[in-house]
Write a structure and sequence with these properties.
Length: 171
């Protein structure tokens, strides 16, 4: 007699596919931001494109904070006794949020183009952290492959926004 219920391996594969799809869906705001800034001023007014670029940077900071928190959560789940194990993730999250503080608030003045570069550095650090954890077997191998693709597209998107901001003299 055949058992028609899916095995635990089938359920795990379905969850992995769902997470991969979710990762790719999360790239949509980055692509939208790049399209808007590069199609300006022909299709979209430059002022509106700048607002969308800032929104894309906000989304990037939120995404980076989520990924940093995921690493901190992993550190906490392993019951590590040292705060040093998740301090870098907290610092990365703070740097990501620093990148989106409006110019002039809290005596911080980072021009929009350099905010994008700051976020590129944050995502690069998160990528290397995740590759290390995936290589150690803390996270599954498929996650490492996914993070490479997602990080590459996020960094390319942020660099494209950076290039357009430089062309608009927003530095």
């Amino acid at each position: 007699m055949h058992n028609l219920s899916p095995s635990s391996n089938d359920k795990e594969i379905k969850i992995n596919h769902a997470l991969v799809r979710l990762g790719y869906i999360a790239l949509i705001p980055f692509g939208f931001g790049v399209l808007c800034v590069w199609l300006s001023p022909w299709i979209l007014q430059t002022g509106r494109a700048l607002i969308i670029a800032q929104g894309t940077l906000f989304y990037a900071a939120i995404t980076a904070s989520y990924l940093a928190g995921m690493g901190s959560g992993n550190s906490l789940s392993k019951k590590q006794k040292s705060i040093a194990s998740y301090l870098p993730d907290m610092m990365i999250s703070a740097i990501a949020w620093l990148a989106i503080i409006p110019q002039g608030y809290f005596f911080i003045s980072i021009q929009p183009a350099w905010r994008a570069i700051l976020l590129v550095c944050v995502f690069s650090w998160l990528y290397f952290r995740d590759m290390t954890l995936s290589g150690r077997g803390v996270w599954p191998k498929w996650y490492g492959k996914l993070r490479f693709r997602l990080s590459a597209w996020i960094i390319i998107s942020l660099m494209a926004i950076f290039a357009r901001l430089i062309l608009w003299h927003q530095y």
